[in-house]
Design brief:
- By secondary structure, the protein is mainly beta.
- It folds into three domains: about 1-140, 3 Solenoid (Pectate Lyase C-like), CATH 2.160.20.10; about 160-295; about 335-444.
- Helices cover about 5% and strands about 50% of the residues.
- The chain starts with a strand and ends with a strand.
Length: about 450
């Protein structure tokens, strides 16, 4: 069954308050609800209670909704309280609430506390070809939801977060082929949520900050864990870029320090182009993260910072500058590992890296243990190549470092390390650590 909202008296003329007509159309019909071309002003949010309305599809076909009140313009509520396990899905949810679809709408707002779309307690919702702009939060997901798909949407220039998983319990969400840009408090943000199995793939995620002088840090992709944890995530094949802001990062992963580094992890960051924030990837209090196959361009403080984390594998990536860009020669901040254990950096290529604005080296390892730096290429760094301080039981091997400064430097607080089989130039290798083994290095 398909119903056009204008049959319930909605005008769509950009002047009339269409809230009552649209809410009546939602309450009194079932199946597909079609808006059709027009601008529909609403003074209150539209509530879609799936347990009462039944299976729902809302299609825009050129419709624009202007929200004049506070809260979400479109609020979809279900009653699914279980997991994605078939035994947890009730017959009522399958029959009346499964797979609500919102497609082809444009939503904007005139109220400072108006959001675009809010989902709560939903089972298999699909948001597709939706545009949300100039709201507070674009897509706001709360409470428990399962098997969410957000695809082919434009989430643009909202004051808050573009896609906001806010204290949610959510397993299985796919965010793919969207433009998520110019959102003031972050592009995609998971805050104090329990999330398992999130896939962020093939999106353009860019310029998600309010202003260069804003006080709060922000990120294009931001995972902020609490004691429930955020795990099982892929960030793959995206373009992720911004402009530098104080404390900002393109990708920001924060575990819960009070719980050790166990509450954020099992993440894969692969095949992205990442550029232009103060730090490209910032990882804190996390574990079990693989970073490989990415291209880094502008990371003036650091390309990758890993703090108080374990089992982080930084594989083959490249950090380079393109000479016809106006920031050529000042682009790569390198890698910093601080307070980490059982991590590796392998096959990373840095060309003309400055080594971080406050750093001593392109790859700098501080107060860490069991770190393996192998097979990296560092050419013409503005500071040192690989620097170890307060680090033990670690290894720097098979790297090629062309530098006018110390290619590899180890301070006196480090011990029991291996510096072997490296090809270096410039000032060569400076090792002051206790029990360090040097062997097979070629310095010219």
């Amino acid at each position: 069954m398909e119903t056009n909202v204008k049959s319930f008296g909605a005008k769509g003329d950009g002047r009339t308050d269409d809230w009552a007509a649209l809410q009546s159309a939602i309450h009194e019909t079932e199946g597909a609800l079609v808006f059709g071309p027009g601008t529909f002003r609403i003074s209150q949010g539209l509530l879609v209670d799936l347990s009462k309305r039944g299976k729902t599809e809302i299609r825009g076909h050129g419709a624009r909704i202007i929200m004049q009140g506070s809260g979400p313009a479109l609020h979809v509520i279900g009653r699914h309280a279980g997991t994605a396990d078939p035994k947890d899905i009730t017959a009522e949810v399958w029959a009346r609430e499964s797979t609500p679809i919102i497609q082809g709408l444009e939503i904007t707002a005139e109220h400072p506390e108006a959001d675009g779309i809010r989902l709560e307690m939903t089972w298999q919702p699909i948001l597709s070809q939706v545009t949300v702009h100039d709201c507070r939060h674009g897509i706001h997901i709360l409470k428990r939801n399962r098997n969410v798909i957000i695809s082919e949407c434009h989430i643009h220039h909202n004051r808050g977060v573009g896609v906001y998983l806010d204290g949610v319990n959510l397993h299985q969400i796919i965010v793919n082929t969207n433009h998520i840009s110019y959102n003031g408090q972050g592009g995609i943000k998971l805050s104090k949520a329990e999330v398992r199995n999130i896939q962020i793939c093939g999106n353009d995620i860019e310029y998600n900050f309010a202003s260069r002088d804003q006080q709060e840090p922000t990120a294009d992709v931001w995972f902020l864990a609490d004691n429930r944890g955020i795990r099982e995530a892929t960030i793959v094949g995206n373009t992720i870029q911004a402009l530098r802001t104080p404390g900002g990062a393109n990708v920001r992963i924060e575990g819960l320090r009070e719980a050790g580094n166990h509450k954020a992890g099992l993440l894969n960051i692969t095949g992205n182009l990442i550029t232009s924030q103060e730090t490209n990837i910032l990882i804190m209090d996390s574990r079990g993260i693989a970073i490989q196959g990415n291209t880094f361009i502008l990371g003036p403080k650091r390309n990758i910072r890993v703090i108080n984390s374990a089992c982080v594998a930084i594989g083959p990536n490249t950090a380079d500058h393109i000479t016809d860009y106006d920031y050529a020669g000042k682009t790569e901040g390198g890698i910093e590992l601080d307070g980490c254990a059982e991590c590796s950096v392998s096959g990373f290529i840095f060309h003309n890296a400055h080594g971080g604005e406050e750093a001593g080296g392109v790859i700098e390892v501080r107060d860490s243990n069991m770190i393996n730096v192998t097979g990296c290429i560092i050419t013409e760094p503005a500071r040192g190549g690989v620097v170890l301080s307060g680090t033990h039981d670690s290894r720097v091997s098979d790297c090629i470092i062309r530098s006018g400064r110390a290619a590899i430097a180890e301070d006196a607080t480090s011990e029991n390390n291996m510096i072997v089989n490296n090809r270096v130039s410039g000032l060569g290798i400076s090792s002051a650590g206790k029990g360090t083994v040097q062997n097979g290095n070629l310095a010219t």
